[in-house]
Amino acid sequence: MSLEWRGAAVAPDDEMPSPESWEPVSVPGRPEGFAGAEAVAYETTFSDPRDESDAHTLLVLNGAYAHTRVWCNGDLLTSHDAYFEPLRVRLPESEEYRIVVECRAPADRFGGLHATDQLPPERCVPGIWWDARLETRPDPCVSELSAQPQVSEADVTDATVEVSATVLSEEPLDDRITLSLRPEGDVRGGGMMDRARVSTDEETTSVTYTIDVRDPSLWWPHDRGEQSRYVLSAKLDDDEHSVTTGLRTVSYDDGLQVNGEEVPVRGVTLLDPTAEDVVRAVDANANLVRVRAQGTPPEVARACDDHGVLLWQDLPLSGPGSFDNERGTNLAARLDATYAQHPSFAAVGVHDEPVSPYADGLGSGFLDRLRFRWRAWRTGYDSTEAETVAGAVDSVPTFPVVGPPGIDPDAATLYPGWRYGDTADLPWLCSQFGVGDVVAGFGAGALGTADPVDTPGFDRARHDRHIDDGVAGSQAYQADVVREVAEGLRQRRAPVVVLDSLRDVGDAGMGVLAADGSEKTAHDVLADSYEPTQVVLSAPSPGERDVVVLHDRPESTNLTVEWDCNGEREQAEHTVGPFARVPVDTLTLSAGDEVTLAVTDGQRVVKNEYTISQ
């Protein structure tokens, strides 16, 4: 049942909000008129929605940011403090209802990216962002259902699904709940069905059960296999509830493994995630999205499942400053439980960018490198609390600290050619600071429009140090940085490479797409650089440079490689092994040379073009 809502900015206190006036608002949503408000109240009224077959009315809120209280007819029913976790509230019986929901910006450190200047204020309005609806259910009923798949890393045919169901009942109950797990669509394998006992004198009870999966069909990233899914259903008398899940293993040991097999990660960061962005990530040849320092909307997580894109989910914690360790641990455990049913769920980051940038504007000379090392040495970060929080996550690998070189991060953010130095400094950064295996952010900013006005998170002064010739020059520079760092990291066999970022949130930014989804110059460059099998130059600069085949597939392949330098074309046949890096020839290049490289396995041709700069 849909609802009509009114809203008002309010001063937070302990009482139910009573603003002098309300105005119509769209819920779910982020009413721009309340941008900058510390707290916003939302009100809706309705008559009893039940028919004669219904006994329970549930208010379902999803994405209630960030600290939420709910009143019904003047009585406080519940409070909630994790917006990524669905809030389901059973409403008392009444002929008429007045619901008031107050959403407050967090007073603690767990506002994530929405508590920084990286997003526009209108995207950070306290509110019900993702879903708001009423459900009516019979008695007894299954009000909540969750699934956590478990697959043995030693034997992927050994699979179970851990089921948790919440049952509502007005009378003492002694019954059995029917649980079924069936393949979705054309997935091979049969269904499973079992019954679990429900016996209680309480109005609400939880039922847990383990379903063994026979002949499991596994979920894979889109560049490695099919996205098999299963539908879990729980039936109690006349009521049935279902969720969709999938089976896979994910681990990290010198690289990400899915279902026991190595999967080189080519990822992009999402700053304002939408389901469309997941499709755009696939178009850019990415197989992972990192949702940075915020919760992932359910439709985005489902899109990752559907399109075979791995999901790196951060805790909403970003920027310098201490945080409550106990609160962080609690949130991490709840985040893990919330996303565990999604087969795309692959990693969790805890503390994003925990120190202020310390090397902005440094160049590539000897003295600049000394300054870089000195500043890095002076920039300390104690990772103990972040590691403790990460310990609350047990279903996927964790990266407790995501930040710059010099603080011993678990996942590094590297910005040569943008924040400091130039792209040729990448090998020095990696070797000097022991980073480069897991890269959670790299790239450069660029204008999306000729006269940008709204540019959250975009450093125009930094941009202007590199570029001074308008949109075309800005985007060309970004494309060069993206290409050189992406290809450099892949040549170094970095197992996890994530671009910062896919799409801008304003008129300019780090995205290879503008805010409206239109492509900047760097988009196609990234897509080329992220091709699983590609041929690249060892460096796009004058001198003797190797032509190198990058092959990120688990099988050996016969390839034809072709290179054209200023119209002179050559070709060679090569057999490359799994996950190979193979130099096939050496070119002597000068400034201004035009180089086109191509590789084919007989079915698909992939090209890469360069103009050699000084």
TrEMBL record:
Chaperone recorded as keyword: no
Any one GO MF annotation of this record: hydrolase activity, hydrolyzing O-glycosyl compounds
Keyword Hydrolase: yes
Region (Disordered): 1-30
Limits of the Glycoside hydrolase family 2 immunoglobulin-like beta-sandwich domain: 145-243
InterPro entries: Beta-gal/glucu_dom_sf, Galactose-bd-like_sf, GH, GH2_Domain-Containing, Ig-like_fold, Ig-like_GH2
Domain of life: Archaea
Keywords: Glycosidase, Hydrolase
Biased composition (Low complexity): 18-28
Any one GO biological process: carbohydrate metabolic process
Protein name according to UniProt: Hydrolase
Biological classification of the source: Archaea, Methanobacteriati, Methanobacteriota, Stenosarchaea group, Halobacteria
